[in-house]
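Bug #77: duplicate submission created two jobs. Keeping one. Sequence:
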Amino acid sequence: MSATDFLGLWLHILAVVAYGGATLAVVVMVIPAANGAADAASRRSILVRALRIYDPLAIAVLGIVVMTGASNLTTYKAAMRGAFFERVGWLLVCKLSLAFMVIMVGTYITFGLAHRIVRAEGLGDPPDDAWLTSMTRRLSIACILSLVLLALTVWLGLELGHPSMYAIPPA
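Kept job's structure:
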């Protein structure tokens, strides 16, 4: 394995861990803290402080995951040559499908939910308790779904990256 491939693999792993860790932190720390606040304004303020950090972080690391994943896949394909699709085709289709769903749910979390909460605060909209409760519930569900999809994707990635799969039998 070349130094570039090694660096790309570790960058991929670190980006996956960063996304998973940040998303888990939203579920186990930020949302419970916000739900424990006395009023809607305090809840929204707690969410906004965390989501202003989470949004750009999540988008950045998901971008790194996609780019390093594509680079690593190209290296594996070159190493396996003609046996690539025969050996890992269906496993790869499943992993990439799950990865696509992680990206879509992650995008929904950041742009569909978190950005709307942050924007409401930035525009000075009066806090609406029912709307904030709904957004927080959807944020929690989406984060949990993203973590489950991420775990399944990592599991398939570990299966895909098993060294014995790439041992090319002698001709």
